[in-house]
Design goal:
57 residues
Length: 57
């Protein structure tokens, strides 16, 4: 798990969380859905990287 990938995945999850809240606040369902997708995708990538590093040890 490289530092660059970790940072990129955390930024994607954070961006998704912000986008989702903006969508919820404005009532824009499409924006909320995009934010949720980004957040979940970033979290899944982080979990995958953690699993990879656990098996490497």
């Amino acid at each position: 798990m490289t530092t660059g990938n970790t940072f990129r995945n955390k930024v994607q999850a954070l961006k998704g969380r912000i986008t989702q809240r903006v969508g919820r606040g404005t009532g824009n369902r499409r924006l909320e859905r995009e934010g949720r997708t980004d957040r979940v995708s970033g979290n899944l990538k982080q979990s995958g990287d953690k699993a990879k590093s656990a098996f490497r040890r």
